[in-house]
Every structure is written in structure tokens, then in C-alpha cells.
Design a protein that fits this description.
Layout (H helix, E strand, L loop, with lengths): L58 E2 L14 E2 L2 E4 L6 E4 L1 H10 L12 H21 L6 H16 L8 H9 L7 H21 L5 E4 L4 E4 L2
Antiparallel strand pairs: 1-2, 3-4, 5-6
């Protein structure tokens, strides 16, 4: 994977980086700055070449805890990344790499391509899709289950995972519960209808560019 981002030269340049909830947004200086030296048994991670590494932030790896690899990595550095989704800069911290590769059991070929907020968003989308599929295969769904399925479907449409034509499925699901006398169900149904209408109104705007997905991604309207 191509790395084109240069490491900032001062602490102030990290102020705009996405903050990690555990490690912050600035490098963790350790004073350790090894270079790859195969004769000395020093191997740095191939997904983090010199131009991405933050100097003096290295920590030692525990090779016995890494998933078996052709070439184990002896040290981790804080490294600069650009989020694949939002385009902001963030740090993939050495301590975070140690957690990934030695505690969670990720292979050394795994890399961090999204900042934490975008990772959480992706995880949320995955959970929505999984729950939607579960509900899709339920026979004789209750009103609450139809509402939950409609909510999942609309959320996936709003995230541009499902095509906007799936709004018709949302309407069908809501029609199936509209006669339910339960006030709680009626309130949720009205809330979902309001969200659906707001989405459709926003999509129908004639402007050439609209902000989508929490103000991060943009798309051209037809």
C-alpha cells in the first residue's frame, strides 16, 4: 500500500489529527529509534516505511505472542495514517499495534486504514446489516420487529449502503404496523416516517452537492 504522508515536524502539527480515545492524538515518545538491521535481528513493520514512522516512538515487540509470520516484527512505531473514509490524519500507535498483533491475534499483514470514529461507524453498519438479515428471515414478525427492521433498513439507506429505492420496503414495513393500537408502536412509526420523509426531501434537493453521512462524505446529485 502506498504511503505518501510525511511525518509532522512539530507537536502543533498533530493538533488536527483524529483523537484516539485511549492514546490521544500525539505521539508517545520512548526515545527508541531502531533501524532495520537483519544481521542484528531488527525488523520493522513493512506496512510502515520510514516516511510514515514517528521517530523515537518505538517499543519492543514480543515475537512469541505474534501470529506466526514469515518475517516477525521486532519493534512497533507510532505511524501516520490517512483515514480511508473521512480523509483525516491519525496515528496508528505502537501500543495499539502491540494490542492488535499480540493480544487480539491479528496477523502482521493487518493494517489500520480508518480512524477510530470511522471504524466505529463501520462496525455499526455491520451490526445493522446482520440484524436486518436476521429479521428478514423471521416469519410472522411482531410490530416491534417490523419497526426494528424498518429502522435498520432506513439507517442503511441513510448510510448509502442500501439504494434509496429500498425506501419502499421501509414504507411496506411501516404499513404493517400502522394499525397497531399500542401508543409506543405508533410513536416509533411516526418517528420513522418523519425520518423517511426528511431523507427523501434531502435527496430530492436540486443542489449540485449535498453533505452526506454526518458531514464527512459528499456526493453529486443527478
Amino acid at each position: 500500500m502506498e504511503r505518501t504522508i510525511a511525518v509532522p515536524h512539530s507537536e502543533d502539527e498533530y493538533a488536527s489529527f483524529v483523537e484516539h480515545p485511549r492514546y490521544g492524538r500525539r505521539p508517545h515518545v520512548t526515545g527508541l529509534n531502531p533501524k532495520t538491521d537483519f544481521r542484528a535481528g531488527v525488523v520493522l513493520h513493512w506496512h510502515s516505511p520510514k516516511e510514515c514512522r514517528v521517530p523515537n516512538t518505538a517499543i519492543f515487540a514480543d515475537l512469541s505472542r505474534q501470529v506466526a509470520a514469515t518475517v516477525p516484527v521486532t519493534h512497533y512505531f507510532d505511524v501516520v495514517r490517512t483515514c480511508r473514509d473521512c480523509g483525516r490524519s491519525f496515528l496508528f500507535f505502537a501500543q495499539e499495534q502491540k494490542h492488535w498483533y499480540e493480544e487480539l491475534g491479528f496477523g502482521l499483514d493487518s493494517d489500520c486504514v480508518r480512524c477510530v470514529p470511522c471504524r466505529k461507524r463501520q462496525q455499526g453498519i455491520a451490526r445493522l446489516r446482520e440484524r436486518y438479515e436476521e429479521l428478514f428471515h423471521v416469519q410472522n414478525r411482531s410490530s416491534d420487529e417490523n419497526l426494528e427492521m424498518a429502522d435498520c433498513c432506513l439507517s442503511l439507506i441513510e448510510e448509502s449502503v442500501f439504494h434509496r429505492r429500498q425506501t419502499e420496503r421501509v414504507r411496506i414495513l411501516l404499513k404493517q404496523v400502522v394499525q397497531d393500537p399500542d401508543e409506543h408502536v405508533d410513536s416509533r412509526c411516526r418517528d420513522l416516517l418523519a425520518r423517511l420523509r426528511a431523507f427523501e426531501a434531502r435527496e430530492d434537493e436540486p443542489s449540485g452537492r449535498r453533505i452526506i453521512a454526518e458531514g464527512v462524505r459528499h456526493s453529486e446529485s443527478s
